[in-house]
Design a protein that fits this description.
Blueprint lengths: L11 E3 L1 H6 L5 H17 L3 E3 L5 H15 L3 H9 L23 E2 L9 E2 L5 H10 L1
Parallel strand pairs: 1-2, 3-4
């Protein structure tokens, strides 16, 4: 009846070659770029290791994101849209004005990107995002 695909392998890419290159174009750096491109084109995503982000900060970020997305959906969406123009609506909540189809939320730095900054609604979440980015 059915044939199941092989277990999927998610590529793991180390950024250590990037940091070792110190701004120079080296064969190792060129190979790293090819590896990232292949992962994007063939798999669509990959895991990054040796990136230099502090382990404790990543764990704090994971906890805060889990807590945020563990909330009831209504509070999450209403918190995201309060006082802004956007394309989100939830159940019977509709913002007074809707935004354009090209609106987007940015969770990182927004200067020069033309996106709508999203402001986390708790001080801990906000400070964790700021440290992460």
């Amino acid at each position: 009846c059915c044939t199941w695909p092989e277990p999927y392998h998610v590529p793991t890419i180390s950024l250590s070659r990037y940091f070792e290159a110190e701004g120079s174009v080296t064969p190792d750096l060129t190979a790293l770029v090819r590896e990232v491109r292949a992962a994007c084109e063939e798999d669509g995503f990959f895991v990054v290791v040796d990136h230099g982000v502090d382990e404790q900060l990543m764990e704090r970020q994971r906890r805060e994101c889990s807590a945020f997305f563990g909330r009831p959906p209504q509070s999450t969406v209403i918190g995201m849209v309060a006082g802004t123009h956007n394309r989100f609506a939830w159940l019977d909540f509709v913002p007074p004005e809707t935004g354009g189809a090209d609106d987007g939320w940015s969770l990182g730095p927004v200067e020069g990107r033309g996106s709508m900054p999203w402001r986390p609604d708790s001080e801990v979440f906000s400070s964790t995002w700021a440290a992460y980015y």
